[in-house]
UniProtKB/TrEMBL annotation:
This is Protein BatD. Keywords: Membrane, Signal, Transmembrane, Transmembrane helix. It comes from Neptunitalea lumnitzerae. The keyword Disulfide bond does not apply. Residues 1-18 form the signal peptide. The chain crosses the membrane at residues 451-469. Pfam families: BatD.
Length: 593
């Protein structure tokens, strides 16, 4: 009986050890749904046996914040060994949507084990109820991204503005930022307002002193009534943070890190335009406007033309409104109008004018009225509709055939006047052939065998050796295509960066000169003015010129670095590195263009 019990115990222990020897390799995440501004932890754990050659996934769609951190557990309990090893990573998503953490692999006793893929749902940036919106969890309230809205209860088509500002404490530095999630502004007409440099100012916020940089300005026109959401802007910020260590002169040593911040969602309550007192002539114009119908002259002769302009100017949704049509009598030949737009968009909205220019030709003698035209708009400041009448215009055709048809005020095209018309001449329609040409004889002179004749005969022979030598040198120079590109690009880089090189050592002057050099290079190569600079436009134009995406990103990043570096600590070594990077970027881009 004792032998049977002993045998049973031994069999049980062997079975338990066999079960314990089974290898398990799994992947676990702290959350499967998170915002683009949040983080998750992923653990790859092998149990019962240790492994070799661990290979992590590519983590495409994520940015690795930290890892791998390894943790080993080796426990004996009642003679049974329990072993596990974990590889842990902290990740932050870099895009919105469904993102998959692919398989990790490890090798145990010559056999490869794989984890199962894990699908993660990444949403727009979310608000943390336990923290101030837009605050990075590691820096506390030292780094904030704010979205300042000019008005939260506008009318439909009334302009509002959103200004995105980065608040950072005075003891940290900011050198660059990258947009991770840009708002789409659904149900808004929108236009970015160019920010000329990231100049900083000092402000007090919640009792603390911050330096504030304006990153982005957008003008918005809501297109429908109701509650409309402005999606959050999310960016990665390159930050220089002081440490507890000091350099040899006692100043704190800074370390570079990247932090992600979000501005949070903003809600706009859009009011509908009132229906009471709404005129039939209203076509959607909202703002403060002036309206005119102007004619270039009111007296002319038959077959002469005049210009008529229907023009709206002022502040409001100029690019979105419809101009009233000009009506002319059928006896006047009126051509389709040409549209003219002179509008600039600022934070306060659109300013300028839009117009339609008509060409009108008079064919018959008489006086022809151009009826008054009405333009109606809604003034959001006054809260009511306003109508402007252009007044009637009289066109007096002083000479020409008489039109026997009845004059009407209906709009016409170039073929609206039917029936036969008399030919009207102005006295200069025909030019007669001259009978007496008044020709004069040419004085005879003999060039053959003259002194100039012999000089011109010999001169080409003298130039033959010079032409041959010059042509050979030119062909050799042209044959060196790569060398020509490099010489030309290097010469161009030195030309634009010469001023910046002279100011090396003076941080503020250097970065101002370097930024100006980059702008001048863009003006020369892309043919755009300084007022038209924007990162999106620069990237688009360089891409059209065939520049690689990597070089475009490097150039745009360099522009941002120049703008922000003036307000952050920088050594002579850093300035020299930025100078070399600028020269290299200009050379590479110019070779491709």
């Amino acid at each position: 009986m004792k032998k049977l019990v002993t045998l049973f115990i031994l069999l049980f222990i062997s079975f338990a050890n066999a079960q314990n020897d089974e290898v398990s390799f799994t992947a676990n995440v702290s959350k499967k749904k998170l915002g683009v501004n949040q983080r998750l932890r992923v653990d790859f754990t092998i149990e019962n046996k240790d492994g070799d050659n661990f290979t992590r996934p590519s983590f495409e769609g994520f940015r690795i914040i930290s890892g791998p951190a390894q943790q080993v557990s080796n426990v004996w309990n009642n003679g049974v060994r329990s072993f596990s090893r974990s590889y842990s990573y902290i990740l932050q998503p870099s895009e919105v949507g469904k993102v998959v953490i692919s398989q990790a692999t490890i090798e145990v006793d010559g056999k490869v084990y794989k984890t199962m893929p894990i699908e993660i749902e990444v949403t727009k940036a979310v608000d943390d109820p336990n923290a101030i919106p837009g605050v990075d969890e590691d820096l506390g309230d030292k780094l904030l991204l704010m979205a300042e809205v000019s008005k939260t209860n506008p009318y439909v088509n009334e302009p509002i503005s959103v200004t995105y500002k980065l608040y950072f404490a005075t003891d940290i530095g900011v050198n660059q930022f990258d947009v991770i999630d840009d708002p789409k502004y659904s149900n808004f007409w929108n236009q970015n307002i160019e920010t000329k440099g990231y100049n900083t100012e000092t402000k007090l916020y919640n009792g603390k002193r911050y330096r504030v940089a304006t990153l982005k300005k957008v003008a918005l026109y809501p297109q429908q009534a109701g509650e409309l959401e402005i999606e959050p802007l999310t960016i990665d910020v390159g930050v220089e943070v002081p440490t507890n260590r000091r350099n040899f002169i006692g100043r704190p040593i800074y370390v570079n890190t990247t932090k992600r911040v979000s501005a949070g969602t903003r809600t706009i309550n859009v009011k509908p335009l009132p229906t009471e007192g709404k005129p039939e002539s209203f076509s959607g114009a909202v703002g403060q406007f002036d309206f005119k119908v102007e004619i270039s002259r009111d007296s002319l002769e038959a077959n002469e033309s005049l210009d008529a302009r229907v023009r709206v100017s002022g502040n409001g949704n100029l690019k979105l409104l419809s101009l009233p049509k000009l009506k002319t009598p059928s006896a006047l030949e009126t051509y389709d109008p040409e549209y003219e737009e002179k509008v600039t968009t600022k934070l306060t909205g659109m300013e300028g004018s839009v117009a339609e220019n008509y060409t009108i030709v008079a064919r018959y003698k008489g006086k022809y009225p151009i009826p008054s035209v009405s333009f109606t708009y809604f003034d959001p400041k006054a809260g009511k509709y306003k109508t402007i009448d252009s007044g009637e215009k009289i066109i007096n055709v002083t000479t020409g055939p008489v039109n026997n048809q009845v004059v009407t005020n209906e709009p016409t095209t170039a073929n609206a006047v039917t029936g036969k018309q008399q030919v009207v001449t102005n006295g200069n329609d025909f030019r007669f052939i001259k009978i007496d040409p008044e020709l004069e004889p040419i004085t005879k002179s003999y060039f053959y065998k003259s002194t100039m004749f012999y000089i011109l005969m010999v001169l080409p022979l003298l130039f033959i050796p010079i032409v041959i030598v010059s042509r050979n040198k030119r062909e050799a120079y042209r044959a060196d295509v790569q060398g020509n590109k490099i010489r030309k690009a290097n010469k161009l880089a030195k030309k634009y960066l010469s001023t910046a090189r002279k100011t090396l050592g003076d941080k503020e002057a250097f970065y101002i000169a370097l930024e100006k050099a980059l702008h001048n290079y863009l003006k020369a190569k892309l043919h755009i003015e300084t007022s038209e600079f924007s990162k999106e436009k620069i990237a688009h134009l360089l891409d059209e010129k065939g520049v690689t995406a990597e070089d475009v990103t490097e150039f745009v990043s360099l522009l941002e670095s120049c703008e922000l570096a003036r307000y952050s600590p920088a050594s002579n070594v850093t300035m020299q590195q930025d100078y070399d990077k600028a020269a290299s970027s200009i050379t590479k881009i110019d070779k491709q263009i």
